[in-house]
Amino acid sequence: MDGTAIVLTNGFGDQSSAKTAHGLVRGTDRYRIKAVIDPLNPGKDAGEMLDGKHRDIPVFDTLAAFLESKPGKVDFAIIGIATKGGVFPRAMQPTVESAIRHGISIVSGLHEYLGDIPEIAQLAQEHRVQIIDIRRPKPKSQLHFWTGDIRKVTCPRVAVLGTDCNLGKRTTARLLVQAAHQQGLNAQMIYTGQTGWMQGGKYGFVFDATYNDFVSGEVEHAIVRCFEETQPDVIFIEGQSSLRNPSGPCGSEFIVSGGAQYVVLQHAPARRYFQGFEEIQASIPSLKSEVTLIRMYGAQTLAVTLNTTGLDKRETLRYKVQFEDELGIPVVLPLQEGVDSIIHQLKTLSGQKNPVVDGGSAV
Amino acid sequence: MDGTAIVLTNGFGDQSSAKTAHGLVRGTDRYRIKAVIDPLNPGKDAGEMLDGKHRDIPVFDTLAAFLESKPGKVDFAIIGIATKGGVFPRAMQPTVESAIRHGISIVSGLHEYLGDIPEIAQLAQEHRVQIIDIRRPKPKSQLHFWTGDIRKVTCPRVAVLGTDCNLGKRTTARLLVQAAHQQGLNAQMIYTGQTGWMQGGKYGFVFDATYNDFVSGEVEHAIVRCFEETQPDVIFIEGQSSLRNPSGPCGSEFIVSGGAQYVVLQHAPARRYFQGFEEIQASIPSLKSEVTLIRMYGAQTLAVTLNTTGLDKRETLRYKVQFEDELGIPVVLPLQEGVDSIIHQLKTLSGQKNPVVDGGSAV
After folding, report:
1. Which of A48, A90, A116, A225 has the fewest CB atoms within 10 Å, counting from its CB?
2. Residue B257: its pLDDT value, please?
3. Chain A: residue nearest B256 by CA?
4. What is the model's pTM?
C-alpha cells in the first residue's frame, strides 16, 4: 500500500465523469481512502451514494472542512474525475494547490499532466511533494515489443470486454477476481487503465497512454510476468472501450496478442448509442454480432454480464432471458447476483488453445 | 518538395529491412533522391535493383565515394532501413556524423530518436543541421480526439489493408492513387507510416508513434482535413499491420473511425506465418475469414491484391483463380498488371454508407 488518500471530485453522483472516484471508493489496495472532497455532495457517505453500502468514507465540501476534522496524515490527493479531452479543470487548481501546501502529493490520470502546469510543479517542488501523472507514457526503453512469449503461459486468460466504454468492465473484472479467490483459486488481474493502477494493480499498463506500436508487447509482457511471478490458476484482463467504438476501437489486442481464450462481455441494454455520440446516433452493434466478432479473433464468450442502468427489474429479466435464448450462454447480473456462476463455469473448462496465438488451426 | 536527399542502407536488396529505402526509390514527392549509400551493392542503379526499372539513382559504397562524384547540394540523408526494435545501428553512426559535418540534415523513422543520441545532437547543433525524427510523437496539444466529423465526408474512402505487415500495402495504395489520377479522378492518399510521410504525404500521421487514445481522432482528422481542402473523388487510406497480427493488431480504426466503406486487401499467398514469427508458427488466418472480419467492421472488400514473392507464374495464376472462385471478387496483381481495374470497379459504386459510422443499420 502506498499510503492514505483523499479523492477530489466535482459531482460524485455523475456515473461517467466520476468513474475514477467510484472505482477508488469501491476498493483499492494501493490507498486507504479517507474522504471524498466534493462541493456538490457534502455530509454524505461516498459508499452509500455509490451503491447503498456504507463504507465510512465521508464527503466534505472543501479540503479546509476535511482538514478541520483532524483526519491525521494524508499522503495523496487523487484527481477523481474524467473530463472531456482529459483537461484539468482550472476550478480544481486552488484545491490542488492547497493540498500541496499541506504536504499532500497529487495523483492524476488526466491526459493533461499536472506536473506540466508551472505553478503546480513549482509549488510541489517547494513543498517536496510528488506530482504523479499516471498517463505520462513510459520511456521507450521500458516498453516491450511482442515476442510470442505469451505461449509459455498455460493458465486460462479471460478478457473482460464490453460493447461500449464506461459500462463496468473493470468492476466486473474485479468481482471475478474476488469470486475466484473465494472459491480458492489464485486469480490475478491485468489492469489496463489508470483507475486499475490506482486500485493497486501490480500487473498491467495504461493502455491509452501507450504508443500504439507497444500496446501488443505491453499486454503480453504484463501477462507473462504475472504468470511467472504468481503462477495463477486464471488471469482476468481488464478490457478497454469496445471492438467497434469509433472513438477508439479496442479489444482485439487482448485476444490476439494477450492470447485470451475466453471473454466475459459486459453490455448495457439500455444504451443504444456509443457513449458521448448519442447526438450523431453512432449505434452500438448487436450483442450477437459482437460475440461472433470475438469468435473470429479466436476467443469464446463465456458469459454476458449486464449493466442494468436505466432498466427496471422486469426489463432486466426480459433482456436476460432474451440474450440467453439468442446466444446460448449465461447472462449474469454482476452487481445484483455476483459472478460465482462464471467462476464455476470456468472451472469446468480445460486450458483451451487460442487458435491465433497458440498456432492451432486458423479461424 | 523539401529538398535533395540521399538514402543510407546496409543491404538494399533486403525486402524487409530496406523497406523505407525501397519506398523512396519507388517515388517521393518530398525529396529528390540523388543516390543510395550501401556498402553491399555499390555501382548498381537502385531502381534496377528494385524492379528492373532504371531510375538514375546510383548506389555508392560510402558517403565519401558519393561526395567525390561531385553531386551538388544535398539537403538530407535519410535512414533507409528498419531494424528489429527500431534501434539505430551504431555501425551507421560514422556515416551519419560525416553527413552532418558536410552540412546534411538527417531524417529518421526509427524508434530510437537520433536527436537523443548526445554526440549526434551536439554535432548537428555545431553544424546547424536538423535531426528530423519522424516517429517522435506530436505534443498532445496537436493531437485530436474522434468527434464524428467523419460523417461530413461524402466521398468514398478505401482502406488498403493486408493480411500481414510488410507486404506492399503502401505501394498498392500509391498505385491506386496514380491509376485514379490517370483516369481523371482527384484521388488522395492518407499516409499512416513514416515512409508515407517521407514520400511526401500531406494528409496523415505516423500510426504506431501515436498514443493509442488519439489514433481514432488522428485518422478522422486527416481524412476530414483532406476532404475539406482537396474535395477529392476518392480517398485511399494506407493500412498498417493486419487485423489479427499478434505483434500489433490493426486495421479496424480505418473502418470504424475513418469510415472506410471499402477495402482493398493485400495478400502474400506464399507467406504462411506472420513475418518475424515463423519460428513460433503464428499462422496467418485464411483470406476468406479476413474478408468476413472486414465485413463485420462494416466495410466491403472490393478486391484482393497479390504480393507474388516466392511464387512462379503458374502458382500465381492458380492462387488468382482459386481466390476469385472462393471470394467472388477480383484478384489483381498490382506490380504486374496495374490496378486500373479496381478504379473502374470503384467508379461503378455509388457512395455507400458505412453502417457503423454513418448510422445505418448496425451489422
Report:
1. A90
2. 98
3. A246
4. 0.92
